[in-house]
Design brief:
Length: 406
């Protein structure tokens, strides 16, 4: 059996989670400019007719009380990595299909599918406060259709015997690969449900939509799908970059705080994926669009923001860019391998609490959201900062402040 796991209204749900004031309100994630498009809509927004892919301008018209939030892909990537880590703890074969969905091959998993699905949903809710819908079926096609049918926040198991009763009444548009032009062609021949397709000779389908697509449609209409679950090959590098709204001088403090933010995000994703990297690459794009990159390879793999940041600053300082005007800065970690040993030493320090501290931060964030804790130097002036002896932990208003996470 194959399991398809899909987070409900993922980007919108992450925004609602980290801004408690948005809970229960219609929220859309999308660029807020005049040409923005809705990337994700909360169920409250969907109830008013807001849809993914809709221009934000139109979404605001159909739902005047809509709250539109600009996307934060770094945050979604971190949350996604945390959820994928949960899924990977239940099956060795996990294939992420996008940031918010994945297929699991259940062969060799020591739970009945329904029990496993409930465990997964419970774990993701407990650790991330995100609703995960799950479909289980004899192949990828049925598992995915089942998770769609289970939404929101549901579970549907379709046994092989139940496939015809589940599949045949569905609209043909639910099948993968049936887009607007295929739908138009099928409709001309009066074919609107999967049952219609199943009752049509494959030769006829091939004539209507073309040989390859017709072949696939006929197979899907019979509930057949031989696509295997292909576990994701380990990423070989990971990182991010920031373009500044205005060019920044190389000495400006913003360079360092940006490197720290990028190091933080990369380190969280490394640890969530259970990997560490040995090579830190810094990329700089100048005001005239020239781009340079410099790397440094460490003796041991690291997965801590402290180490990534220290290395990135050394690399950056070694570039000798004193007078440069900088447009973009990036940080990438390469040479990824198995996770760092928990007792590893951070650069140049014997006894230190960085590893323990950052892993504690991971656990707090898994529970309360990414904005709940971070280095004090990333806080803007005026923000509330909670200090404890020997460490500095900040709370961001508008994150999950108020839950007592520090
Ligand atoms: Mg989803």
């Amino acid at each position: 059996m194959i399991l398809h796991a899909d987070l409900d209204a993922f980007y919108a749900a992450v925004e609602q989670r980290r801004r408690p004031g948005l809970a229960g309100r219609p929220v859309a994630v999308g660029a807020t400019g005049p040409r923005g498009v809705v990337m994700s809509a909360s169920y409250e927004a969907r109830a008013s007719g807001v849809e993914s892919g809709q221009p934000v301008v139109r979404a605001r018209r159909v739902c005047p009380e809509l709250v539109v939030v600009a996307p934060d892909m770094d945050e979604y990537a971190v949350v996604s990595a945390n959820v994928m880590a949960v899924l990977s703890s239940f099956s060795r074969k996990v294939e992420p299909a996008s940031l918010d969905e994945a297929y699991l091959d259940l062969a060799g998993v020591p739970f009945r599918p329904r029990v496993l699905a409930e465990l997964l949903r419970e774990r993701v809710w407990q650790e991330q406060r995100l609703a995960l819908s799950v479909g289980v079926g004899p192949n990828k096609l049925i598992a995915k259709l089942a998770s769609v049918a289970a939404k929101p926040d549901g579970l549907l198991v379709v046994t092989p015997a139940e496939v015809p009763g589940f599949l045949l009444p569905l609209p043909a548009t639910r099948l993968p690969g049936v887009g607007p032009s295929t739908t138009a062609a099928l409709t001309r021949f009066g074919l609107t449900t999967v049952a219609d397709l199943a009752a049509t000779p494959p030769d006829t389908l091939r004539r209507i939509v073309g040989a390859a697509a017709g072949e696939q449609l006929a197979r899907f209409a019979r509930g057949e799908d031989l696509r295997p679950v292909v576990p994701q090959r380990a990423e070989r590098s990971l990182g991010g970059e920031r373009t500044f709204p205005a060019d920044v001088s190389a000495e400006h403090e913003l360079i360092r705080t940006t490197l720290l933010r990028l190091a933080e995000s990369a380190a969280a994703r490394l640890r969530a994926a259970g990997v560490a990297g040995r090579t830190v690459t810094v990329k700089v794009r100048f005001a005239d669009l020239r781009t340079v990159t410099r790397s440094r390879t460490l003796p041991e793999p690291v997965d801590l923001a402290h180490d990534l940041y220290a290395t990135a600053v050394q690399v950056f300082d070694g570039m000798g860019l004193a007078r440069a005007r900088i447009r973009l800065i990036g940080l990438r970690v390469e040479g990824l391998g198995q996770g760092a040993r928990p007792q590893q030493m951070a650069l140049g320090e014997r006894e230190h609490g960085w590893s323990e501290l950052e892993r504690t931060v991971d656990r707090v964030r898994a529970k309360f959201g990414t904005a709940s804790v971070g280095p004090a130097s990333l806080l803007e002036p005026g923000r509330e900062v909670a200090r404890e002896p020997g460490r500095e932990v900040g709370k961001e208003p508008g994150g999950d402040a108020g839950k007592g996470t520090s």
